[in-house]
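FIELD: query
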Amino acid sequence: MGSFAVRAGITLLLAGGAYVLFHAAPAFATRTAVAESSRVEAAFERNVLGETEKLRRWTEAAHRAGPAIEERWKPVLQLLQGSRFAQQALAAKAAALDAAQGREEAALARLLKEAAKAAEERDWIHAAFKIARAGDTLDRTPAGKALRTQVLDGLLIDDGMVLIPESSDEARGERQEAFLVEAHPQRARVPFPEAQNIASSEGKRLPSAEEWDRMHEILQKRGPAWTFPYAEKIKVLPGLFEWVTGSDAEWKSLGYGICKGSGRPGVPATHPLLRKKEAAHADVGMRLAMSIGE
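FIELD: result
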């Protein structure tokens, strides 16, 4: 009997405790859930505001407005769509774009002024550097287009060089900087070391293999429309190859250098040709280049 009473007492105690917990738990759980929800929302708000601010600063510092900026903002705006943060993010984006575009316009005005001054002094190379930095933004105004034509005509006539604009492969994350290159190759029978010495004495250099390929694209009118008149002035002579710089360590260690050019039936001009660097080859010459800013 006593044993039964103990078991019954324990059962009633457990049942009573369960009853209390059953009725108290919802209120406790509700308070806990509300508190947790508030903490999560506060953390989310901090993260959203922090990321939006980072993105705003990045946009304001961007070199120029364009697709890259839109792509960076797109996932953030999609995530916040329908939330109370959406309008705030849109406003931040608009303000940042205004700041970036305002700075871009001011920078473009400075470049045009500097390019015009260099052109007035017939310093075509310096003027071409400014034109290259301005890029396609020159197409916005007739004055910008006219200045570019003046500079590139002077560069070709007085210095014998052509501006090759920058290019980019967004899929590969690769970017080819703009550069200047001679419209015509120079004499043949020049060993590679001598070609480099000549280039250095003129304040120039040999083009890289990638730059030579980019030049060939422009020659084939695979570039901006403004390059077409100058593409016609670039000459790749049949049967004459040109030294370029490359990074093939295996061939370099054996004393070979890379050449590019046309003259081999069925072989593209951009396909590399290996020749001994120290030798003077009757069918190998050189074409000099300059980097932007040199």
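FIELD: remark
Residues 1-25 have pLDDT under 50 and may be disordered.
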